[in-house]
């Protein structure tokens, strides 16, 4: 039996991960509109990973008989003011998701739900990587983005990101 609070938080996390995918598609659309196809690709791949995260939570809940309810996905914030503003929004969003994963972990810890804690271990590590990636992107933009040639090269680099399925399989 999974604790009611842990169940509720897991259900909310499904929505947060799908929202993350939606937010990153919104970011990708911004970069498509300004003509930076590499950045758009990077966020499109990121959105696919977020969908995978959502589905991992879905599968975990289904495998453990936890009631699942899909809720409405919120509209992503409309105003994207600059390239940097988008990237910073990405980092802040990942920090928000990390806090959310940690909160589920803490609830599972309190009720000695070792199964959920073990499931979440992968996400704790993943969030560390996602925050690093988001912060690195801001550093690169700050270093090279001020000059058109540098921005072009960075966009080319980001065009090379390819989708791969998550290393966690349920
Ligand atoms: Fe699924 Fe980027 O956190």
Question: What does this entry look like structurally?
Answer:
The chain is mostly helical. It contains five helices and no strands. It has one domain (4-73, 80-159): Up-down Bundle (Ferritin), CATH 1.20.1260.10. The chain is 75% helix and 0% strand. Helix 1 (4-34) packs antiparallel against helix 2 (37-63) and helix 1 (4-34) packs antiparallel against helix 3. The radius of gyration is 17 Å and the shape is elongated. The chain starts with a helix and ends in a 12-residue tail after the last helix. MU-OXO-diiron (FEO) binds at residues 17, 20, 50, 53, 94, 97, 130. The site of MU-OXO-diiron (FEO) has 7 residues, from helix 1, helix 2 and helix 3.
Q: Fraction of residues in helices?
A: over 70%
How many strands appear in the DSSP assignment?
A: 0
Number of domains: 1
Which fold name corresponds to the CATH topology? Ferritin
Keywords:
single chain, 0% strand, 170 residues, binds MU-OXO-diiron, mainly alpha
Summarize the structure.
The protein has helices at residues 4-34, 37-63, 83-110, 114-144, 148-158.
Topology:
Layout: H1 4-34, H2 37-63, H3 83-110, H4 114-144, H5 148-158
Helix pairs in contact: 1-2, 1-3, 2-5, 3-4, 4-5
MU-OXO-diiron binds near residues 17, 20, 94 and 97.
């Amino acid at each position: 039996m999974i604790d009611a609070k842990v169940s509720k938080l897991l259900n909310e996390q499904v929505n947060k991960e799908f929202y993350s995918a939606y937010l990153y598609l919104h970011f990708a659309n911004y970069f498509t509109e300004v003509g930076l196809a590499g950045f758009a690709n990077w966020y499109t791949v990121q959105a696919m990973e977020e969908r995978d995260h959502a589905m991992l939570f879905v599968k975990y809940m289904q495998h453990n008989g936890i009631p699942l309810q899909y809720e409405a996905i919120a509209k992503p914030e409309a105003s994207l003011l600059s390239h940097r503003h988008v990237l910073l929004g990405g980092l802040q969003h990942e920090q928000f998701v990390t806090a959310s994963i940690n909160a589920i972990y803490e609830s599972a810890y309190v009720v000695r739900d070792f199964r959920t804690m073990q499931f979440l271990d992968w996400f704790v590590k993943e969030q560390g990587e996602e925050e690093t990636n988001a912060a690195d992107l801001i550093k690169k933009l700050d270093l090279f983005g001020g000059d058109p040639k540098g921005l072009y090269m960075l966009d080319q680099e980001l065009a090379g990101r390819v989708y791969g399925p998550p290393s966690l399989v349920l």
